[in-house]
Amino acid sequence: MSAPAAKVSKKELNSNHDGADETSEKEQQEAIEHIDEVQNEIDRLNEQASEEILKVEQKYNKLRQPFFQKRSELIAKIPNFWVTTFVNHPQVSALLGEEDEEALHYLTRVEVTEFEDIKSGYRIDFYFDENPYFENKVLSKEFHLNESGDPSSKSTEIKWKSGKDLTKRSSQTQNKASRKRQHEEPESFFTWFTDHSDAGADELGEVIKDDIWPNPLQYYLVPDMDDEEGEGEEDDDDDEEEEGLEDIDEEGDEDEGEEDEDDDEGEEGEVSNLALHAIQVVFETDLVRRQSHSDKGELVLFCTLRCENCDCINLSGFR
After folding, report:
1. 150-159, 208-217, 283-292 — which is least confidently predicted?
2. Disordered: where is this region (predicted)?
3. Please, what is the end-to-end C-alpha distance for the chain in angstroms?
4. Model pTM?
């Protein structure tokens, strides 16, 4: 006959449970301390990585400078390049009024300069031709981070010509029909140069530096891409409507007419097209280092567009 099972009192059960809880809490606390130690190591590596990335950025910023300069020279050959680029950018265009666009037609060059210590900030320069709005040839805005990491900004004071201050639009001459439209129009783009209230949240500066400046051509070409799509759709419709109604001779006449129109393009248009192509070469190149007969290294850019009439751009002296 088996011995009767020993009875365990409720007090003993609670005592065992409390002991297990104490052990579990101690293990958890030790685990938390170890996690904190490991996390400190991860943070240390992250800081080290940031320093290394900063060095790489500084290195390649210097290497990019001659290409930015070459691009600016090519852009200068295209009328209204920058105002078109800004108008085609969804975020920037939302800040532009009609008068802003008129003033930006005199904008000839934009440059973004990151300070040697990239973390400390950057500057955006806008170069203008003589215009009826202000006396300045260059408008600049700088963004800085002080030693404590607080952001700040400063900019050029705009010397407006009499009655041309776009930041002080007057509604006195507006009639009732246009007053509502004026109310809906955004503040002037040029108020950005006087707004230093929150430099750390300056979206326009960040958009220009990080989105437009690296590749402005993609926004300049937006309308051309739309036009090409529209022309393609029109051609499809014409083919369907005229199928079987025109003979080969008539089609040949149309082709000759189109060629005549192409021949009538002005010299300025031809220069613009060549400049656009050259900019595409700068953006779509393979960098190849070759050795010349004198064993001097030179940097050669080869056009990846594979066109027959395009000469390779050779920038000697850059190693």
Report:
1. 283-292
2. 1-31, 145-194, 226-270
3. 98
4. 0.60
